[in-house]
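Hi R.,

Here's the chain you asked about this morning:
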Amino acid sequence: ASSTVRFKAPEISDTEKARTLSVASDFANRSEPSKEKEFMNVLLIGTGGREHALAWKIAQSPSLDTFYATTGNPGIAKLAKPADITVTDHAAVVRFCQDNAIDLVVIGPEAPLVDGLGNSLRAASIAVFGPDKTAAQLEGSKGFTKDLCAR
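And the predicted structure, written out as tokens:
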């Protein structure tokens, strides 16, 4: 199964949307999913500033059904339901995704990617935004990348 997910472009720009609704009110007032559209359950892994920016944008998606995020960032907690999981326990993450019908996992920090979390999720046929373990080494180890570039 392919792990590629394609998103549709919004019908109006984010700037136009921001003039009428704030992100928080848009998220809070989300209507029930229409049968005409395809909706996704998304899990965001990570608690830093990068992940907060990702959460802010993901929460705006008109294709979003339920949005979960790992716990630990109060800003992200305002946008997503808490997912109290340990990202180093790959089996627990896969179970959470299966139990909550997660369609896409977005992994922000490089540590879980270097640890192979993306590989474990893909092996369970769960779509992942992030590189596999081998490619993640480029970001996770400057020494590895320097040696690779030297070769």
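The first strand starts at residue 40 and ends at 45.

Let me know if you need anything else.
M.
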